[in-house]
């Protein structure tokens, strides 16, 4: 089991560790349009559609994108973590949706009937599954014919300048999410399940100016979150060297993409 498919109960007990990583994106990403609104603009959703969000996390997408989405959507927010479901429902209930329901659920065995949703979303979560193809098969099952699946994940080169620093922990110099489920994996698995897939990459990069934010993000998950003092000191040195080399700035590449498949009608 890779680190990203184990230890998730602790990692996602609530949204705090996820927030440390999200802060890097929100503070330092340079893009014409932010990630969540960019996704929302490309979703071919109809008004009143019933949408299942698998691995919804704290529901940040819906809060950020509500204004860009069609009216009267019926949302079902599901996550393995009950605290994430609670937080997502609390966040989304006051927003402009026709209905909001929460359901604790494992993506590998969705507790919903066949053909019960017009759309399913699985954003930055399939890399947590020991068998992503099984999760995709479940998403296919609960979609009505003609319904769409939207998946997001990272490319192999995502934030490589940051992950080069995590070799101090003995980690490979690569985004662990992309190691488990990168662009070509998403493309292959979705095409195998649906027979079609369309991909687009968010045009964005990062310009990080605060070394401490790099430290907090990269020590928010294993193995950095359990490193000893000496390793953490070496990690701080590596971060300081990288910022020095960039005259106080760390330029970081981003590769995050949206994949859409449609279930044949
Ligand atoms: C990186 S967060 C992404 C959250 C949200 N989709 C977003 O894009 O902001 C991954 C989420 O997947 C959830 N998750 C992990 N394994 C899961 C599983 N087997 N079934 C359902 N959710 C899972 C975690 O609890 C966490 O909330």
List keywords for this structure.
265 residues; three-stranded antiparallel β-sheet; 22% strand; alpha/beta; seven-stranded mixed β-sheet; globular; single chain; binds S-adenosylmethionine; 10 strands
Structural class: alpha/beta
Counting DSSP E segments of at least 2 residues, the number of strands comes to: 10
The average pLDDT score comes to 94
Helix content: 25-40%
| Number of helical stretches of at least 4 residues | 11
- Written as H for each helix and E for each strand, in order along the chain, the element string is HHEHEHEHEEHEHHHEEHHEE
Strand content: 15-25%
What's the oligomerization state? single chain
Most strands sheet: 7 strands, mixed
Q: What small molecules does this complex bind?
A: S-adenosylmethionine
What general outline do the C-alpha atoms trace?
A: globular
Q: Which strands sit side by side, in order, in the main sheet?
A: 4-3-2-5-6-10-7
């Amino acid at each position: 089991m890779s680190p990203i498919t184990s230890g998730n109960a602790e990692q996602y007990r609530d949204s705090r560790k996820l927030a440390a990583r999200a802060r890097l994106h929100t503070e330092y990403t340079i893009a014409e349009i932010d990630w969540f609104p960019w996704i929302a603009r490309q979703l071919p959703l109809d008004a009143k559609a019933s949408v299942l969000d698998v691995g919804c996390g704290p529901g940040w997408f819906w809060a950020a994108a509500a204004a860009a989405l069609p009216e009267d959507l019926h949302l079902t927010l599901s996550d393995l973590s009950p605290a994430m479901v609670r937080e997502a429902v609390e966040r989304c209930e006051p927003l402009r949706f026709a209905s909001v329901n929460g359901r604790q659920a494992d993506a590998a065995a969705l507790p919903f009937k066949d053909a019960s949703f017009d759309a399913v979303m699985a954003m930055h979560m399939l890399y947590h599954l020991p068998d992503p193809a099984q999760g995709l098969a479940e998403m296919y099952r609960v979609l009505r014919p003609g319904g769409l699946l939207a998946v997001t994940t990272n490319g192999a080169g995502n934030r490589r300048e940051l992950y080069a620093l995590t070799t101090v922990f003995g980690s490979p110099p690569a985004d662990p999410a992309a190691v488990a489920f990168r662009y070509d994996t998403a493309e292959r698995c979705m095409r195998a399940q649906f027979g079609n897939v369309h991909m687009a990459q968010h045009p964005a990069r990062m310009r990080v100016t605060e070394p401490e934010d790099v430290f907090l993000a990269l020590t928010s998950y294993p193995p950095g979150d359990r490193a000893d003092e000496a390793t953490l000191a070496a990690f701080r040195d590596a971060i300081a060297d990288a910022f020095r080399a960039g005259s106080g700035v760390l330029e970081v590449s981003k590769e995050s993409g949206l994949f859409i498949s449609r279930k044949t009608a």
